[in-house]
Protein 1
Amino acid sequence: MRCDVLTIFPELIGAYLDTGIIGKARQKGIIDVSVSNIREFASGKHKETDDYPFGGGPGMVFKPEPIFKAVEKLREDGRARKVILLTPQGRVFDQAMAEAFSKEEKRLVFICGRYEGIDERVRISLVDEEVSIGDYVLTGGELAALVIIDAVARLFSGVLGDESSKEAESFSWGPLDYPHYTRPREFRGLEVPEVLISGNHKEIERWRRKEALRKTLEMRPELLERIKLGELDKKLISEIEEEQ
Ligand code: ADE
């Protein structure tokens, strides 16, 4: 993944990008994430990035000029780029979008909005795609950019310690994740399910699949409509229904 993040709060996202799995992936050069401060491209003594909305109304609007200049500066290297605006008005981000971004040949540019909105001319002239991370309103796009970078980065080989964990977890096959246990075998009267200690890998796999289906039926039944259930899944679901 190669991307640039445009924000007025580079320090806000810098700590996350320098730490843990994402920090290591950047150090190893598996992902390349650069952050630019939009304010550096603002003109005038006060380097204002926002202004009052034409037509009146509450709040401030992100000025077009600093964002245009910031994107133009990035484009000086001649590399192809896809510009993504983080906004609650965008298409809602999901695992399929994360996978598409991970395969994107172009360098991604994430524009993090702030204030009440962004001058429409930015959207008209610069933006290729608008993305939201969910149906709620944040104070800015920075957290959204981090969510996307994180979800995309972990799809690259060498980013996660154990490559198989990426496949085993939720959403790569549809249902939610199965329950996990570690030592001790008994904690405050709660025992680890017997099957997980049995050493019977086939039974463990069956149990995990069943519990994943149980969790999905309980929390997100609509996910099961989107995936193709095999014969075993159908059998496990009828077992779960009988147990209820
Ligand atoms: N900026 C503010 N809210 C947002 C959201 N839900 N997704 C992406 N960017 C945002």
Protein 2
Amino acid sequence: MILAPSILSADFSRLADEISFVVQAGATWIHVDVMDGVFVPNITIGPVVVRSVRRATDAYLDCHLMIVQPEHFIDDFVKAGANGITIHAEATRHLHRTLAMIRERGLKAGVSLNPSTSLDAITYCLDEIDLLLIMSVDPGFGGQAFIDAVLQKIEQAKALTQDRGILLQVDGGVTRENLPGLLQRGVDVIVAGSSVFDGKDPAMRVREMLETTPGDIG
Ligand code: DX5
Ligand code: ZN
């Protein structure tokens, strides 16, 4: 399992420290939530902050773009030092073209689906995808509750991705309690925001999550 702590719930006044705590504890990816106030009802950060984060860590920078028309900003995130860019199927008219654009620049291309979006949205671009992100909350905020109805979609997504070398990622409301169920369903990359950064000791939270096995009782 790859753990990708989401810096959305970190203390931005000490961002480099927060990142180094979780990376030293074993997190190999850092999840960066980019919101535009249009696709989602919140505004967060953009390429400028990604560039600073890039200077602070060698970890894989997993940029989750919750913005409309992401095709206009791919190059900005590439230049800023992203390793992977995930776009929402609901946010672009040309999903296939935008995924190809990300790959042409040498990054991993991800597609994210809102809780209400069917897997059908990606049927015809599976060959262009390196990562499939199943949202388990409506995107926009950290600290929301996991939507259980999404578990069935995660199972179907695993069947779709496992023989194609596509990483399956889940984002939203992940806790130590529901993590074993996600591991049982074969999720490859776990995003965790508030469950890592909302406590006193993010490093300990990372270690606990990385030690969790599918057999642990949730
Ligand atoms: C939600 C973001 C998530 C968020 C997760 O729109 O995409 O990455 O930071 O936060 P938690 O883990 O607190 O639900
Ligand atoms: Zn996210």
